[in-house]
Amino acid sequence: MKRTRDYKVVDVFTARPLAGNPVAVVFDADDLSTEAMQAIAGWTHLSETTFVLTPTAPAADDRLRIFTPRSELPFAGHPTLGSAHAVLEAGRARLRESCRWRTRRPCWR
Q1: Which CATH number fits domain 7-102: 3.10.310.10, 3.30.300.20, 3.40.50.1390, 3.40.309.10?
Q2: Which of 8, 50, 55, 88 is buried most, with the most CB atoms less than 10 Å from its CB?
């Protein structure tokens, strides 16, 4: 596991810094264990921290795992939206009509 990670904190539901619902988005998280993801979520101490991974389902563009400081969530709206924003803003995906995220729930379109 590498010692440093690229991540971004996104203020969801606002255009003003420090005014929205924050989510930490960790990129390139494929080599992190569940335990490491949980530890990072506890360290950020935000309501949710997400981890962007390579998709395992052919219909998905990315895979997303969502953690609170105490546990993993199967799905949550604001972290999914914030993660999509972070991925687009970082140039890790291109904007198009639709994208598919794979979370612990079935793939949503």
Answers
A1: 3.10.310.10
A2: 50
Report phi then psi at 80, rounded to 5. -70, -45
* pLDDT tens track for 12-54: 999 898 999 999 999 999 999 999 999 999 999 999 999 999 9
Q: Active-site residue among 35, 48, 72, 97?
A: 48
Question: In the structure encoding, which two tokens stand for residue 79, read together?
Answer: 């972290």
Among the residues of 1-109, which ranges form H helices?
A: 34-44, 77-89
Active site residue 35: no
Pairing of strands 62-67, 21-26: unpaired
